[in-house]
Amino acid sequence: MKSFDRNKPYNSLPNLPPKANLESVEILKISIEANKLLAELKGYCQTLPNPNLLLNTIVLQESKESSAIENIVTTQDELYKETLRFSDSIKNAAAKEVIQYREAMYWGLQEMQKTGIITTNLLVGVMQRLRNTDENIRNTPGTKLANPTNQLIVYTPPEGDTIIREKLKELEHFMNDNEFSNLDGLIKMALIHYQFEAIHPFSDGNGRTGRILNVLYLINQNLIGLPVLYLSYYIIQNKADYYRLLREVTEKGIWVDWVKFIVKGVGETAALTLQKINAILQLKTNSEEKIEKALKASYSRELCDLLYSYPYIKIKILEENNIAKRQTASDYLKKLEKAGVLESTKIGKETYYINKGLMAILSK
């Protein structure tokens, strides 16, 4: 492998695929297990009467963990309170960034579904929505990545708008061209994730954009149907290994350990997501009788679904979803509090109702 100098722009970053044995028995064994769990997650989501029930909860959790990797930290409480505000009135800066992550994920998914492919323009759009900026590919020299502890330079990404765009064009080709369709989808995702992070095309937001790219690619390859994979949790739990293995690919060409790490993470994450979904649905099932008893003839499945889409809820949410007018919605929520399904709290002039059971599952 050509010698690597961490202090010089890595303009010689090789295109994918690498010259490495990525279909060893060990890798394929991990990949088969991860694919099996992903298939189970995908199939399970398809049987749900309302798959969107999951998106408000799981996608927001993924957004929170992915942002935490970048030290954008908010509590569950802050986050769910803020989701009920209008986006332009969100006061908590960290919560606002997490919510922007979720919106960037949804936007990227819609754009990808229009064209059927993942493009450089799509990734730029995701980054712009993440950061609420009109910046594009970075074109100023001098970008260097340093160890946050000792400030030593660990990596200098490719430099120059033309070079960065060429690298992204080659990555596009690898992601979308049938020439590489013989590679297992999860192994390909691991390669794509490294390559995007190594190109480091933006002045900020590369990590979060790269993690959205992971989920978009899995959906694009029909490995999951919805963006319900909770992959950032695995990365944050194994943060030191994640950055070490990225560096070992760059510095020593050690691909196998990186691929194993990412593919194993997908499997573990799929299992974790399945557990969370099952717990949420079990809680919902266990509460339905209590909700029906409290509301009697006013009970509706739509209201029940709504209560398990938002850990924090307020009267306006019921109004916006055509469940009930303001006074009736207020009566419903008071009855559900009396029945022990919800718990009210006053924040400023607004009364919020907390689904404590759902919060407990999401906070695990």
Structure description:
The longest helix is centred in the last third of the chain and has 41 residues, at 255-295. With 364 residues, the chain is mainly alpha-helical. Strand 4 (343-347) and strand 5 (350-354) form a beta hairpin. The mean pLDDT is 88. The strands form 2 sheets. Strands 3-5-4 form a 3-stranded antiparallel beta sheet. The relative contact order is 0.14. It has helices at 25-47, 52-69, 76-82, 93-115, 120-131, 161-176, 185-199, 206-220, 231-237, 239-252, 255-295, 301-307, 315-320, 326-338, 356-363; strands at 145-146, 153-155, 312-313, 343-347, 350-354. It folds into 2 domains: 25-276, Fido-like domain (Fic-like fold), CATH 1.10.3290; 289-363, Arc Repressor Mutant, subunit A (Orthogonal Bundle).
Outline:
The protein has helices spanning about 25-45, 50-70, 75-80, 95-115, 120-130, 160-175, 185-200, 205-220, 230-235, 240-250, 255-295, 300-305, 315-320, 325-340, 355-364; strands spanning about 145, 155, 310-315, 345, 350-355. It is mostly helical and about 375 residues long.
